[in-house]
Amino acid sequence: MTDESVTISAEILDSGINVSSADPLIGTLELISSKDEVIEVTMNRRNAEDLIGILVEFLALGQGGDASPPMQ
């Protein structure tokens, strides 16, 4: 069996996250692939918090007109 990597481009759908449970917090983030396939990413509190941290680090790398202003 071979391990072949495939990169899929996707965008977040406007629907946001569908919450299926508030206690414990569980939801689904829906993405749409470049092949028009819906990708569902199950989220819980821990991986949502991890994602926020990663996104903050990403935004901090921005430069130029679309960069966030420095935090005070």
Description:
With 72 residues, this protein is α+β, with helices and mostly antiparallel strands. It has one domain (10-60). It contains one helix and three strands, in the order E-E-E-H. The chain has one helix at 45-60; strands at residues 10-22, 25-33, 38-44. It has a three-stranded antiparallel sheet. The longest helix has 16 residues, at 45-60. The protein is extended and about 40 Å long.
Which descriptors would you attach to this protein?
single chain; alpha+beta; 1 helix; 40% strand; 72 residues; three-stranded antiparallel sheet
Give the topology, please.
Layout: E1 10-22, E2 25-33, E3 38-44, H1 45-60
Please summarize what this structure is.
The chain has one domain (10-60). It contains one helix and three strands, in the order βββα.
- Given the C-alpha coordinates, what overall shape results? extended
Strand content: 35-45%
The SSE order reads EEEH
Give a short account of the largest sheet: 3 strands, antiparallel
Distance between the termini: 53 Å
Question: Portion of residues in helices?
Answer: 10-25%
With helices defined by DSSP (H or I, 4 residues minimum), what is the helix count? 1
